[in-house]
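Study this:
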Amino acid sequence: MAEVRPVTSVQANKSSNSISWVAPLVCVIVGYVIWRYFLGNASNFAVAGEGWFWPDRDQPISNLYKMYQGGIIVPILIGALLTVITFIIERFLTITKANGSGNNAEFIRKVQYNLANKNVDAAIAECDKQKGSVGNVMKAGLHKYKEMISNTELSSDQKVLAIQKEVEEATSLELPMLEKNLVFLSTIASVATLMGLLGTVMGMIRSFSSLGEGDGGSGAASHLSQGISEALYNTALGIGTSAVAIIFYNIFTTKIDAITYGIDESGFTLTQSFASLYK
């Protein structure tokens, strides 16, 4: 018996994924610039001390600039939020492209119709119109489908197996592209809240330390309440960043599940069609 050696017509994507390590680094740097030179600008405070990396600032002229006094964790959290936004945009563009044009269910029905009429070329043309991951996998399977029709060396079962393996190989090249970089959203969703709490604890430590060094009285109580308010900016920023990451992570995984279902359905369509028409 001849050995089945399917070769996929879909080629692996050779593009680098430099955004996965460049984006977080750049976002943290931008976060520090926003925190230091926008929020921490000397003109935003009535009392401005000296220093370049983390200068002392006091008596902000508005509540927005109190965020600067939340401490050095604030720029990290701003960087985390910018990283989330970056990967949301990147995943949205990638998944939108992978989804292709038109409705996947309607696309599969058109392919099924063409296969039922033994018009494989028309089915391939539908894949070219779809231009998405489902269309790419279906097209790879259809080329093998067309090849197996004229093959006289393999049995019917071997031909179906060859088509199935072609679809599986094409699928293995498409899915990693869909799921790439989602780990950043899931990681930040977990870590951002903890980072916010860490910044809050550090702010509370500074506040109570200042209270212990003071003379007490209403002035000390006012200073403590102000310090606690500043520290809680960390918690608010951490929770907000985590919430955004979780929401979009779930949106993207839902969209990927829909595309994966379409890919699975396309493979089932090809094997069942061939098995019924070319016994």
User: Anything to note?
Assistant: The first strand starts at residue 45 and ends at 48. Confidence is low (pLDDT under 50) at residues 1-10.
